Amino acid sequence: MIHPATPAGQPHGDPPPQLLPAGHPLVAGRTTQAPLLQAAAGRAVPHTPVWFMRQAGRSLPEYRRLREGVAMLEACFTPELVVEITHQPVRRHGVDAAIFFSDIVVPLRALGLDLDIVPGVGPVVAEPIRDAAGVAALRPLEADDVAPVLEAVTLLTAEGGPLGATPLIGFAGAPFTLASYLIEGGPSRDHARTKALMYGEPALWHDLADRLARIAGTFLRLQLLAGASAVQLFDSWAGALPAADYEALVLPHVRTALDSVQDLVAAHGVPRILFGVGTGELLATMSSAGSEVMGVDFRVPLDVAAERVRPGAALQGNLDPAVVMAPPAAVSARVDAVLAAARRAGRGHVFNLGHGVLPDSDPGVLTAIVEQVHAAGPVPAAPADGGEQADPGPW
Ligand code: CP3
User: Fold this and answer.
1) How many domains does the structure of the chain reveal?
2) Substitution site in 67, 104, 191, 318 for ligand 1 pocket (most atoms within 8 Å of beta carbon)
3) Which of 167, 206, 317, 377 suits 238 as a labelling partner, its CA being 20 to 30 A distant?
4) Is 63 a member of any domain?
């Protein structure tokens, strides 16, 4: 595991009290009290924190203007654009977190892989990885590989920077989801080649997944050191797997990725969010990886999800992104239903959609959702349900 910020000479096994650099929002205290971090720890909040996956993107006219004539990956490696695009939804909607504008394939591109993000399609890989030589060529990620990306994180989160007290969520793609793009060569409905490799050549699969887990873990760690206050690991396509296969073939690698920042969780209270789509049957297994927050897609009500995820874990979700297209009264009723399910769940709750904002969404509806969630008012601490983090609440 790579620890880029571990000072030289730091004795192993003797963690320093402060791992994040001076001036980091969590060290300077700018984001420590943010509702996102409080809710992730199951503590009382003045209002439920809310942000949206894909809040920075095509639903915003100011985003579309900025991206005219600039390819997606080019934008991701241009710090000024990343800063502005990441800030746009925070400015417009008043969300409680910024999600870093980037993509799950950015670290792979930074490692020199020939891949592109094709509009309307997604990541496309020129030479898919399907054999031992391809896997062996995947080297570890280093800070220098993603220097412009980290510069953007620093610019966003520095004292006096645009985000101020709003926490930045860094992110990475989880091993299965990244592997699927690399093995299939692009988006896939059935992940057939990926599964063929997992089931047919388990040793090669574990080698690939381990390399991707370390790349993802390093990328999360680098974003935290540069100024992010929370991280999300996107295992978007994990729902394609039966729970037993997820447990045997994927979970150990998700753990590796999450463990890469375990010391920052312990020392600074950084929350780790784990999210996937169609993961109702996987929530218990996924949650055993130890993330502080479990992302829940829109198919499972939050109170049902609470019965599946590990004690003490908070929940994130889960308004169906398609609901944003419905008339205002229907949106409002569904937002209330999510908040009510969260109250029944008795867990820390971060309001979000059950997957990313659809490009045709009306941004005004998203702003109205933020206002409604905030207007719902204070939330007490989650009852101590066996989780170490939860304060004893009034319930
Ligand atoms: O606001 C945010 O969520 C921050 C940025 C973000 C992007 N991609 C920007 C983006 C995040 C967190 C991602 C993660 C990502 N990328 C995931 C996991 C999240 C999920 O949706 O499950 C996945 C699977 C990808 C791969 C990927 N990149 C896809 C499927 C697409 C969509 C292709 C398309 O055009 O429909 C992309 C491109 C992409 N990533 C866009 C954005 C804003 C759209 C490209 C554009 O605006 O030109």
Assistant:
1) 1
2) 104
3) 167
4) yes
